[in-house]
Structure formats: C-alpha cells, structure tokens
Amino acid sequence: MTRLALSACLLIGAAPLAAAPLTPAENAAITADVDGRAGALADTAKAIWSYAEVGYQEVKSSALLQQDLRKAGFTVDAGVAGMPTAFVASFKNGAGPVIAILAEFDALPGLAQTADPVATPIAGQAAGHGCGHNVFGAASITAAMAVKDWMIRNKVAGELRVYGTPAEEGGSGKVYMVRSGLFDDVAATLHWHPGDGNAVSVGKSQANISGKFRFRGVSAHASAAPDKGRSALDGVEIMDVATNFLREHVPQGTRIHYVITEGGKAPNVVPDFAEVYYYVRHTDPAIVKAVWQRVNDAAQGAALASGTKVEVEITGGVYSMLGNDTLAAVMQRNLEAVGGPAWTAAERSWAERIQPTLPTKKDLASATQVQPLQRHDSGGSTDVSDISWVTPTVGLSTATWVPGTAAHSWQAVAASGGAIGAKGGVVAAKALALSAAELFRSPDTLSAARAEMDKARGADFKYQAMVGDRTPPLDYRKPTGN
C-alpha cells in the first residue's frame, strides 16, 4: 500500500472520529479494563512460565494464547509463515488502519528455576523464562482485549492484530513472518519487553547472523592409528583460533561469540563429527554480512587444514532496530500516564531478599518510576527489528524484574514467575492499549510515522531477510547428532 493510499484509507475508515484524542473517560475505561483482567494475565503468564517451551516447540504456550484470544472474539489464523506455533489474531471493526501488537512466548534452555528469591533449580526441567516472554505474551493479549472492547464501545473503525511470534531467542521467528508479507499492510506495530525498569527506547539493537558449522572427518583409534583419522574437532578448533585472530581486524563494535556444541565422545577416538555455533553482531546489517563471510572463510580454511569437510546452517539473522520518534512520543506519554508498578509489602520483601544476589544493586524505588525516553544502543539483538524496517515500530520495557536484574538469569526467571512479573505485565498492557487506541484515532500521527520510517531506511530500500530464502529452522533447539 502506498503512503497516499494508506492516508486515504485512514481518513475514510476513521472519518467520524479522525484525529480526536482519547477523552479522560476513555483512558480510565481502558486502564480499568486491563485492571479487571490482571488476574487472568497473571494466570496465563504463570501457565506459560510452567510450560517453559523453547523456540518453535511452544505448542502449549501458543495454544493457550490462541484460546484466550478466540474466547475474546478474535479470529485466529494459526501456523502462519511455515511455523506451527506462529499465529495472527485479528479483530476487524470496519475499514481503517491496521495496528499490530506483538506477543512472544519462548523460553531459554538451561534456566529452570523456581519463583523463589534464592537460586533453586527445578530438577528435570530443561528450560526457563529468563527473558520473561511468558509475561510478554500474556500482557500483549490483555492489551489487545482492552483495545477491542474500546473499539466496540466507541465505534472505532480499523483492524487490531496480535502477532504470536515464536522463537525470538535465536530462531528469528518474526523474520519469516515479515518475509511472508504478513506486516505489509500494518500502519504501526507496538511491542514491549520485560526488564528491570520502565522505559521507551528508540536506540538501535544489534543486527546479527547466527549459524552452526558442522565438521565431518574420519574416525580412528587415537593412539593405535591416528594417521588414519581426520579429526572433526580439529576443524572446529582451527576455525575458532582463526576467528579469534580475526577479532583484531573487524569494524569497531563487532561482536563474535561461539560455543562448541559437539566435540566427540571419547579422547581415544578421533571424532568424525563436531559442531560449533556462532553469532556475529553489529548495529550495521551490512557489516554483519561482511564479517559473517569472513567467519565462513575461516571455517573453509579450517576444513582444508584438518582434512575434513564443513557445512553451515544459518539458524537466524536479524536487522538492527529502526527507531521511530513519532511513535515513541506517543508511547512515552502513555507510559508516563500509567506509571510504574506499585508493589505490596510482601512483594518488596521478596525483592529485598533477591537483591543481594544481583551483580548490580539499584534503588528498588526505581521500579515505580518512568525513565526519560532512551536513545542509547542495545547490546542485544531481536527479530522485532526486521518488522521496524517494513512498518513503523515502537517498544517499551517495564519493571517485571527487581531493579539490577540481568536478562537471561535465574533471578529473571524467578521474578517472571511471580507477582512482580505479573504487575510489570499489567503496566505494559495499559501502555500498549492506550497507545494503540490513540493511534487508531490519529491518522496524521500514523502518516508522520510512516514518513519518518521511509526517510530513515532510504528511498532505494528493499527488504531482504538476513536468513535468505531458507525455511524456518524448526529444530534449531534440538540436540544435533552426526
């Protein structure tokens, strides 16, 4: 859709209410709607926390969110873009703009932890919600339900969508949804993420490419017949050495990290299979592509040197975030109107018990405060970034964890499974809902956001996924065998 056609659509679809701001009564009704659903939000978040399903395996988590949305009157299209756990839920109330809210729900491997303020792993559980995506999904659908009710009450035209996006943690699920054109007609996309404070950000994230390099050699007795063997592990180690020397000769800000996922089973057997899993990051997607090629060259050289063969599987790849000041102003205003979560005495006591275990000590009162608009770049990566290059996008974080908590930690898992996590989710749901409602009423704001995005990405920009034309890596979290 062209910008002119989009503007026309917005003006026609929302003609009776074009550019009318939300009234205090409407704001109060939306936030009260979210408050009325706070118990359900907490229950959904806790259920997904207990499922703790990793990327592309979030069968129960996705099904629960879809079930709740269907009950609330949304039409759900499941299994989109070649991903069984991905979905798009829609509520359409006549012709008008399409506003999207993102929902994530995947867990991280190796972080099983109870909801207690002391390190207590859960025996037999392989994963945990160290990034709080259980609260992410629950809060996003709660916001959507509140906006839907508001649209009906006030006869607001347009379409509200919830995108159920699997495998954010390294699987790049949203990339395949973008590549499939599922965001092509979206006027604005809103998202949020759990954190240890309340803030809206327009800073860049890290673009990245990730992949697994699999070396294949020849097994032999490591002592009796070492000359007959060709060690796949040698290939991995030579590649790692070459890549580590490469670090001196890459652009400033480049990050390269890896883990050896398979290296053989016994020292006296020359391993015929070994695997190493790499990430390359930078805020500039072009630099990521160039450095990734050099890492790939190191792999090819290592295979030649070790007498092995190597193959590579791209498991993920994302752009850096394209910030949008127009939308950020809307979300910042609404987050400030909502304010941070208010803890009970019991919740503060829980926070005080976990605080000594945190590497960074922050004032617990900061959880109740809203920070100024954030413009600093992030060290992490997210597949939300790809969406930001095809539709205006903005996000916020809320205090779902105790201030000072790092993401991907047992402390984040613990908070995400309890009352503090759920309260942060309520704040996020309110800010998302108020922002979405305001945008439905603001065609000029949507047009300005689109113009800002078009200018930032350049007139010649054409979206091309960093993962190329590969299909979603649905088994990327499963152990690799030879």
Structure report:
The protein has 482 residues and is α+β, with helices and mostly antiparallel strands. Helix content is 39%, strand content 17%. The protein contains 14 helices and 13 strands. A seven-stranded mixed β-sheet has the order 1-2-6-3-7-13-8, sandwiched between helices. The N terminus is likely disordered.
What is the string of SSEs from the N terminus onward?
A: HHHHEEEEEHEHEEEHEEHEHHHEHHH
Q: Report the β-strand fraction as a percent range.
A: 15-25%
Low-confidence stretches: 1-19
The strand line-up of the biggest sheet is: 1-2-6-3-7-13-8
What are the defining features of this structure?
2 domains, 14 helices, seven-stranded mixed sheet, 39% helix, four-stranded antiparallel sheet, Alpha-Beta Plaits, 482 residues, alpha+beta, Aminopeptidase
